Amino acid sequence: MAQEATFKGDVSELSHSELRSEHQELSEQLLESSPAAHRREKLHDRVTVIWRELKSRVDETPPECPDCDAQHWTQNPGDAKRCSECGKHLSMDEIELVETIENYWETVLSGGTTND
Ligand SMILES: [Zn+2]
After folding, report:
1. How far apart are alpha carbons 102 and 116 in whole angstroms?
2. C-alpha 68 to ligand 1 mean position (Å)
3. Which of these, 28, 42, 54, 103, has the minimum number of CB atoms within 10 Å of its CB?
4. How close is the Cα of 66 to the center of ligand 1, in Å?
5. Per-residue pLDDT for the chain (116 aa), expressed as one digit of tens each?
6. Which 3 state secondary structure label does DSSP give 86?
7. Which among 30, 25, 20 has a CA at the least distance from the CA of 6?
8. What is the DSSP letter of 83?
9. Cα 61 from Cα 108, distance rounded (Å)
10. Is the whole-model pTM more than 0.90?
């Protein structure tokens, strides 16, 4: 069994690369074979907090949902991207929007710099 990861503390005090590596680590743990529900919830909460902090550090904003104008996108592995607000799933017809979201996520993870 994998050990419980220690969360690294207050996200506002962590560097971008620390946040990025913790985000990656915890996302991988979330994908691993069914962690216990309470554990999963903790991991998910932490990933959400880290992501919010990473987003707050870049100037770019995500594209708007064509249906409800929300700017919250989510994706489960192997699934289509979907709007967190109205649940709209993006299909290949909206490939440009899908790519814009991909680019945005990359920007957030890289901290808006290419040589980080
Ligand atoms: Zn929407």
Report:
1. 18
2. 4
3. 28
4. 7
5. 445 557 888 999 999 999 999 999 998 888 876 778 888 899 989 999 999 999 999 999 999 999 999 999 998 878 899 999 999 999 999 999 999 999 999 999 988 764 44
6. coil
7. 25
8. E
9. 9
10. no
- The two tokens of residue 7 are 């969360």
DSSP the chain: -PPPPPP-S-GGGS-HHHHHHHHHHHHHHHHSS---HHHHHHHHHHHHHHHHHHHHTSS--PPPPTTT----EE--TTS--EETTT-PBP-GGGHHHHHHHHHHHHHHHHTT-S--
* Cα of 53 from ligand 1 centre, angstroms: 22
Q: How many CA atoms lie within 13 A of 43 on its CB side?
A: 21
